[in-house]
Amino acid sequence: MKLQRSDFILYGVALLSAILAVGLVYGYVENRVAEAESKTEVKTVTVIEKPELRSVVVANRDLYRGEKIEIDDIKVLMVPTEGVITTGVMTQPNKVVGHVAKQHIYAGEWLIVQKIGLEEEAKDSVEALLEPGMRAMRIPVSAESGLLGMLNPSDHVDVISVFESADGKRMISRTILQNVEVLSIGQTNRMGKVKQGGAAEGKQDKQSEAFVKASMVALHVKSSQAEQLALAMNVGAIHLALRGPADIELVETNGVNVKVMERSKQRPPKYKPKQQREVIQIMQGDRVQEVFTR
Fold first, then answer.
1. pTM here?
2. Taking CA 97 as the corner, what is the angle to CA 129 and CA 180, rounded to the nearest 5 degrees?
3. How many Cβ atoms are within 10 Å of 59's Cβ, its own excluded?
4. Rounded CA gap, 111 and 92, in Å?
5. Tens digit of pLDDT for each residue in 188-220?
6. 67 neighbors 105 (Cβ within 8 angstroms)
7. For the chain, which domains are there?
8. How far apart are CA 72 and CA 93, in angstroms?
9. Which secondary structure element, helix H or strand E, spans residue 182, and what is its range?
10. 89-114 burial by CB neighbour count: b if 16+ within 10 A, else e?
11. CA 151 – CA 219 distance, rounded (Å)
């Protein structure tokens, strides 16, 4: 079959139409891609071959709230200036030594002004830890009544008072304060370093023990709580009960007296009896081995 002239014209028109359609689609896709790229933020990474360094004071060990910072507790690192984005970073160790940590500072953490206080504040005083409207009150405790040896600054305790009833007929034990923060303990800080006026290191064990037993605990209280503490110390004895870190619940209690303790029944301890296990004997030659089943 011979192709006529009209057929060539038809095929030519179809080819041109196909080429035009492909061109239009390609142009549309290119425009959409260019539009999307123009709206996309281009992120670049700046590489500094020789960055400028600056000194930063870093904690050499874990420091706890209320602890005085010594020269051995810190170290100085040289870090790129571009990496120091926090304001108030301490750069000179001589401006840090002697201050009291206002918050927990962990080993490797940068020291900032907000965590160690300002230069004009008292460096080694508990006053730097007091919140507005709060008071620091020191109470005498012994190793038995004050948890000495296991109590640390920033711990929270309940204060239990043991006193004689108003009619003088019975003794009463009652929790008078709950969830009270400990500011300081005796003459030593959390890590056992001796401050001025305390017992020197290297003393005999008896002298150290006597120092601990005669220690004092400073509590972070309100004015009304300080009044309760003062009264409790004058009318009887006080004891401290340690709270868990996440335990902030206030418990309602009416206290106890001797009669209540006499009437209370002791509950038997709860335990699960051990399950009996069977014994299987395994003979290997002239040897017998006993195996217990679960």
1. 0.49
2. 20
3. 21
4. 10
5. 443 344 343 444 455 555 555 555 444 788 899
6. no
7. 54-127 (3.90.1210.10), 130-196+210-263 (no CATH)
8. 10
9. strand 171-185
10. bbeebeebbebbbbeebeeeebbbbe
11. 12
